[in-house]
User: What shape does this take?
Amino acid sequence: MNKTINIAVVGLGQIGNYLLNELNTKKKDIEIKTGKKINVVAISAKNINKKRKYKINKKIFFKNPLNILKSKKVDILFESIGVSDGISKRIVETAIKKRIHVITPNKALISKHGDYLSNLAEKYKVNLEFEASVAGGIPILRTIKEGLATNKIFKVYGILNGTCNYILSEMEKSNTQFSDVLKQAQNLGYAEPGNPKLDLNGYDAFAKIRILSALSFNNKISKDKCLMEGIENISLKDVDVANKLNFRIKLLGISEIINGKLFERVHPCLVNKQSYIGNVNGVMNAVITEGNPVGESVLQGEGAGPGPTSSALMSDLLSILRGNIKFPFGIPNIKRKKIKIFNYDNYINSLYLRFEVKDKPGVLAQITNILAKKNISVERLIQIPDVKNKTASIIIITHKSIEIDAQNCVKIISKNKNIIKYPTLIRLL
Amino acid sequence: MNKTINIAVVGLGQIGNYLLNELNTKKKDIEIKTGKKINVVAISAKNINKKRKYKINKKIFFKNPLNILKSKKVDILFESIGVSDGISKRIVETAIKKRIHVITPNKALISKHGDYLSNLAEKYKVNLEFEASVAGGIPILRTIKEGLATNKIFKVYGILNGTCNYILSEMEKSNTQFSDVLKQAQNLGYAEPGNPKLDLNGYDAFAKIRILSALSFNNKISKDKCLMEGIENISLKDVDVANKLNFRIKLLGISEIINGKLFERVHPCLVNKQSYIGNVNGVMNAVITEGNPVGESVLQGEGAGPGPTSSALMSDLLSILRGNIKFPFGIPNIKRKKIKIFNYDNYINSLYLRFEVKDKPGVLAQITNILAKKNISVERLIQIPDVKNKTASIIIITHKSIEIDAQNCVKIISKNKNIIKYPTLIRLL
Assistant: This one.
């Protein structure tokens, strides 16, 4: 590698723009730490004139990022456009084939095309780094690839979506309905103003959990259908009842190996209020790994926002400048396995069930009978009457039950004429 | 570097012995991840016949570790003897001069001779790695050097001694006196059976905080006298009162930059029970960094024991095998500064004070008068009478006060004839 390194930044949204400023202000620091001078030679975005926090150098601006690779000598390219296909994929592909190192925070791209792109990077002997794609400022990928390198990891899980965690925390803290807190989150810039769906339905956390499992278990990124539920149906009543039962509701991404099979999932969980994960509130992210011999490791930090994301992008940059040529997923692609998928119908777990019923004699017996028939035994039961509306909420915490039995049960009970709305099912951690 | 790497392990106590087993069982995994075959060619310890958990190969045993370097070709040496000078220093020095990479969990050695040894390593172009010296299984040094590489860190603190944290947690949990919990900790192997002094008096945590500051602030390891207090004088009464006031007592190591000066300290702290650090209990360690732009990052994990320590030693090994030649403290030694030391007399903080007094009229007034004269204002005051003994405990939480004023105050009050024993002073976080 030369002493002067040419850099291109493609995509100048919040993150790209912040990064650009970091690159400019930390040149000297980077030279001290790595012996390399960096030089931003090209930038690209959709709109040259968009209002940005930090001024851009219009002399090095390209409307079409692909033209950068045709006309400039670039050593390292930052891709921060952020789509899973299209121009994001095209520019990364083209750069790698021209033996340009690539750094990206694009989880959608990596969780979809990570295997293909890492193969390509290995073939062309360049780095493909994506620390910023999972949990922003928390250096979790580097920790798994390097800090915990020889451990056998069997479970990795955590709070991977700051928007959802903020909404759930705020619902509890200020006793406010989901829809109102969502509006508030949008005003504060924590949730997308237009379409926050990919945060709320669990998709964003899922992309991250797939990247985390690939690193933890050395498997190819899984493509199969999995258990994915968001927080859209969590009501204030659930938050409130959970609270009284000494639980909090958190949207968790979880990946583990069960009997040699891979079980990846994202769904709301009831977690103990005294537990570590139960105390990670607000926009914070946290990732917990369980491995041998290291035991349980926890990493917590800000999961999003241009500052933490830039911190991760810069750590990737320094790693490349220090000359660490590495396999994107820690080991050669040929050694990465395909792990069979665990059938989540067989998942055994305790559940929180909430039934909204007409307050009539015999309703409770009808519910508990169906549960008993399906071998679902009750650990705790709470009935909260709503005298005015002549209805009641029946909340049940079950003993460990088989997922498919519980799902069937809920389906059957939902058809009972005394049930007012489709029951709520939340898994315990 | 050749494809086959010769390794020597010097010191076969709990950690060295566990490491040896890891090296043997993970050979294949290491080859997959790094392309290098490792080969343990020499081991050394005081006693060849000592009973060890894992069998050792006596054919490669050396009584005197220095003879290894005379007769064997070694690429990487593990030093796990663990003293700050003597043979530990000598073997590390000699190895580096022979261009052998060194990996060590020896915090006493690094906190005392780290500057000299890292200079030497830089000169001879080898790695000196010591991830395992701070917080065992938590990859905190790598995270600061790499994951947070371009952040400006201004504070690093945490629970760095598992023994102390276990004792304090257990005192609260089982309502047991310090001395009894200590015995229990010794029986469980959490505290040295012979002389646990270096854990209890804060020395162990101090060595770690000095290494952490050197990495966080790019300074030479400080040698100056600092604020260091252990947990030997924490009584069950303090634990209990703290609990009622919604606090927990934790032994913290803290390093921060105040007005451009370095303030390193280790002492018990009253921390909020709802805070993150207030919920790290038992033998767990946790390190929190505050930096820009990343914000607050938390790492938590098992801080000691052969498993977590080996995990860190192995991560250092993989880093070397992957060919990452790095400055031991992240930047060239010549760029590491000497930072002036903050005079802790000027430290401004809230305090918890406990006075044991004779239960006579006017005593409280005497105490509060002296406090008022020294400008120490009271935020909360609790008096707990002990009717049987005609004594009382007066507990005061102060507003922010200057350290030296508070110390003087306590000295003056301690001479009052109504004071039964020297007052207790614990700082709030």
